Amino acid sequence: MQSERRSLLRFLLIYMGSTFLLFSMASWLFYTSTRHHLLDKQREVLKYESQKIESALRELHQSNSAILHYPVSKIGNSAIYDLDKHYIFGTFAHPPQLGARQKHTLSLISKIEPYYLGAAYLLLSKPIDYTPLLALQRNILFFMLLAGGFFAVLGYFLGKLFIAPMRESIKQMNHFIQDTTHELNTPISTILTNIEMIETFGECEQNKDELKRIEIASRTLSRIYDDLTYLNLNHQYHRRIIRLDMAQLIEERMVYFAVMAEVKHLRIKTDVKSGVILEMDRNDAIRLIDNLISNAIKYNKPEGELYVRLTEEYFMVKDGGFGIKKEDLKIIMHRFKRANTSEGGFGIGLDIVNQVVNSYSFVLQITSQLHQGTEVKIQWKK
User: How many whole angstroms separate alpha carbon 123 and alpha carbon 46?
Assistant: First the structure.
């Protein structure tokens, strides 16, 4: 379920990001083009008004009246300049220099020929009318929001459609795990029960090695069964939090793995501090300990060293095995990922450990050197 949600979220982020970028570019081009068109319409009004003022100046030039009335524009300010572009007269409170740019203002400079009243240039300017531009911005924003909502819904259903095969594969895998664990449970229980009966009521020296191999295989199957059951039912698992004596539990699990370690002739060293109490589910604690110890045995070298340590701050398992490459350390905790394929396994042990660690807000640290060994530390106190 988590991988499905992550895939859907990534798809939506990429889909919505690319869609937003595409619509933003299209909207910007549309806004720029329309803005130029709207400003050109306002410039056309200036051009028409300039022609009216120029016509009025011509009439004043031809008039014999002793008093000249400068034509006043209703849409903006105007001024006339001589050939040297010096200001003659106008309606500006502060006459601008001819050709100077004015912020938020549209200006039009017309050349007057012939020179009516000594004027060679006519400057007409008006404030930019932002009303249609603001309306354009609102419309584009509304369209972006509407289109964003539509494509978000569309992207969600497309994402659901695209991840449907993955959902079906996960469903089939879960059914497979469920069926496998069900089929494994009965023979495992039978084998372990019979081994205990043989060890209790009569031991045959001739079959001692065979019994050890049967016991190792049975315990391995039992651990695989527990891990597969946890993966299948983790989302429904009810944790019973109790006060656990970690030292006692580690000693019990070391006895459980003693036969497996003995077959590889491993040198086991322990430094377990007594009295370390943690509040957690017993089965979760067993999964942490079992997966770390079994991995340390499995990937250890024959006659290698297995070091187990427990302190008030952390639990640590170290082996002298093959080690892990640096590039594999980043993915080793992902489900079904294995750094070493020479040994058996499903690649689920560290994934289970990581899930349990995250459930209790512990810190998982893995350090390794190739051909020298791996150290895995679970820290609960800083």
Answer: 10
Provide the CATH number for the domain around residue 362: 3.30.565.10
Predicted local confidence at residue 291, as pLDDT: 87
The verdict on 281 and 366 lying in the same domain is: yes
Q: Are residues 211 and 242 in the same domain?
A: no
Q: Tokens 């045959």 — which residue?
A: 204
Judged by average pLDDT, the poorest of 217-226, 295-304, 320-329 is 217-226
Instruction: Collapse the DSSP code of 361 into the 3-class scheme (helix H, G, I; strand E, B; otherwise coil) and give the result.
Output: coil
How much is the pLDDT for 176? 62
Secondary structure (DSSP) of 157-199? HHHHHHTHHHHHHHHHHHHHHHHHHHHHHHHHHHHHHHHHHHH
Q: What are phi and psi of 325, to 5 degrees?
A: -65, 155
Res 287: pLDDT: 85
Q: How confident is the model at residue 335 (pLDDT cuts 50, 70, 90)?
A: low
* Distance from C-alpha of 146 to C-alpha of 158, rounded to nearest angstrom: 18
CA distances (Å), origin 125, targets 69, 181, 273: 20, 85, 89
Is the domain of 209 the same as that of 253? no
Residues 97 and 10 in one domain: yes
The pLDDT of residue 208: 64
CA distance 260 to 294: 9
DSSP state letter for 206: G
Cα–Cα dist 267/302, whole Å: 10
Report the chain's mean pLDDT, rounded to a whole number: 81
- Say if 141 falls within a structural domain: no
**Per the confidence metrics, is the pTM higher than 0.70?**
no
Q: Are 68 and 10 part of one and the same domain?
A: yes
The pLDDT tens digits of the residues spanning 130-148 come to: 899 899 999 999 988 998 8
CA distance 285 to 356: 8
Residue 255 — pLDDT band, cuts 50, 70, 90?
confident
Nearest in space to 155 (alpha carbons), one of 18, 3, 26, 11: 11
How many structural domains compose the chain? 3
> How does DSSP classify residue 93?
S
